[in-house]
Design a protein that fits this description.
Elements (H helix, E strand, L loop, with lengths): L10 H9 L1 H15 L9 H16 L23 H13 L3 H27 L2 H13 L1 H8 L4 H25 L1
Length: about 180
């Protein structure tokens, strides 16, 4: 019977790649960036500035920023940027402690998810998985995107949210067209 046929070595992996290239490309991006997280050796001021409120939330229980405390009121109302990066940094610090990998983890995760979202968006718009794979691979290998993911800024999260919103708009338009 067909169910008892032996598969060639590696056939399962190839089948998985054919069925789920977007998520696998995203996972590969995350793994490769985590294995190479310290290749960008500088700890930029943005990393401290943008993630310090997350550390304060975990260590002190208050969502604030000592780094910017010289600006009157800034340390008590940390609303100058969307809180997703600092809150995701707080989650990373709560789970894994304070460190460079923990600080850069949210940006890398957002980067991998953005690759997956780009894949999905191109599939939604074109219906062509091959084209979607090429688009996602271009983002995967684009040096400025890789560096941005590694320096723990809010950029990869913003790209991810933009792609998710765009997917929502495309799906909404398709649904509206079906109703008319």
């Amino acid at each position: 019977p067909a169910r008892h046929r032996r598969r060639a070595p590696g056939a399962t992996m190839i089948d998985a790649l054919r069925r789920h290239p977007g998520p696998l490309l995203a996972l590969a991006f995350i793994v490769l960036q985590l294995l190479d997280v310290t290749s960008y050796p500088l700890f930029l001021y943005d990393e401290a500035l943008l993630n310090e409120a997350g550390w304060q939330l975990i260590s002190d229980g208050r969502f604030r920023s000592d780094i910017r405390s010289l600006h009157e009121g800034f340390e008590t109302r940390y609303l100058w940027q969307p809180p997703a990066l600092a809150l995701s940094a707080a989650l990373s610090y709560a789970l894994f402690g304070l460190g460079i990998v923990q600080t850069r983890l949210p940006g890398i995760l957002f980067g991998g998810l953005a690759i997956w979202a780009l894949f999905q968006l191109v599939v939604e718009v074109s219906g062509r998985r091959g084209t979607a794979l090429i688009a996602a691979a271009l983002l995967f290998f684009w040096p400025p995107f890789v560096v941005t993911a590694k320096i723990s800024r809010m950029d990869t999260g913003a790209i991810l949210m933009l792609l998710i919103a765009t997917i929502g708009v495309v799906r909404s338009e398709e649904h509206t067209s079906e109703l008319q």
